[in-house]
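user: can you give me the structure for this one chain? tokens are fine.
assistant: on it. calling the predictor now.
[tool input]
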Amino acid sequence: MSRTRSISLLLAAAALTFGACASGEPEAIEIDPTPVSVDEPASEREITEARVPYHLWGMVAVDPGWDTLPQHADGVFLAPGEDEDGQALTFTAVDEEGTILWTAQRPLSCSGFTLTTDADGRALAVLTDVATTDDALAGTTATAYDLHTGEEVWGPVTVPGPHYGPGVVFAEPPPEAMGATGPRVALDPATGEVIAEETGTQDRGIVGEYHGILLLAEQNDLVAQEAATGEETWRHALADFGWEADQVRSAPEHRHTAGRPALVGDPETGYALIDPHTGTVLATEADQADTEPLSGTHIIRRDQELHGYTPEGEALWTSVAEGDLTLTAAGGGFAYTLHGDAVQVHNAVTGEIAQAYDPEATGPIAVPEAMTATGAAIIRL
């Protein structure tokens, strides 16, 4: 593949914990939050110690210095990494050709981020920050930037606490590390204005904001609204899924990428894969899901079974595993899974076991964790 079109973006081996705040007053750190334009290639990295899939051979690998999985929208990845001195986070936006577009610094504490899309289709990065409020306590703010340029679009606006998500959803931190958050609020991606808030009762819950679509659990229904106008676009009866309104949530580890379905539901009864724009139910009773971008095949894990569905939600194939099964990513025509410590690859359209790695090679296997339609991939080394 062309070096100017395709890359394998790399993650550092360490996983950074960020975005969460303990209750009480977070520490304010003097950092200039203004994004800085870079427009330079990211540092290339040779991959000699690991085996990568065949379809990534010949692609440029870069290491943007991220410490956590990036989010992706409109051809741009964004994620933070801790500075060398350990005093701040640097958020780095990288396009699919490996060019660093811009960077922005934030304090280590209470710094979260999300990607969203405004009513005009513009991709935005929303970063949180710490600011001193009128009562001299440190509070949380959110600011939106054009994902491609780093130009400020709105903000900073005061939010009740850290980023909760998906999308521009925020909540007060729990009083204890493992407790429940306070009522959530959702912002308009285009303006930063509050468009929905929970009252503490169980009559209306915010499920998430999905690139311009707000999902709400209202008493007996799952309801979708356009974030910009508040217009209802579809609704489903919660009883059809066996859900209770106060239990409906977004799947906690699902990557809600622009243009891909939402995975929402009840962790006890399973999640449903739903197109947030049309309301089409693509699969139910899922534990994990991803969409292979070349074929549009939806890959679903239910317990120890892997399932493939057409872009319209018709069942294609089923594969039953022995032992623990984890879906890691789908892309390049394949679905990547872990069976314990063993890597198994399936053809995304047929479900057949595929040979994605050189069987004669040695070294640890690098398993993709996210892939795009253009061939860019995230691998952790």
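assistant: here you go. The chain is about 0% helix and 45% strand. The first strand starts at residue 7 and ends at 11.
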